[in-house]
Design goal:
alpha+beta, three-stranded antiparallel sheet
């Protein structure tokens, strides 16, 4: 999505988001929450993501959409043992 028109329809926005080769190949796409709210609506968009069998996360105003049905895990370093005092 290079340039977003202020008059873009919700259908055109969805076509831009979900019409890419990345989506067809089950990869990851990212969109700004501001654009999602502007062109489609947050709740409606999340419903569409899940209707397609995808998952999404939000951070710092960005929504990352995992275009597959695989589980999403937050990666963390191994827990450190508490030091004895």
């Amino acid at each position: 999505m290079d340039s977003l028109s202020p008059h873009k329809s919700p259908e055109a926005f969805l076509a831009d988001v979900f019409g890419s080769k990345l989506v067809r190949d089950g990869k990851v796409v990212r969109r700004s929450l501001r654009d999602i709210e502007r062109y489609f609506g947050r709740e409606e968009f999340i419903e569409e993501v899940y209707r397609r069998g995808f998952r999404a996360i939000e951070n710092a105003g960005q929504v990352v959409i995992f275009c597959n049905a695989e589980p999403v895990r937050i990666l963390r370093p191994k827990a450190q043992l508490p030091r004895e005092l």
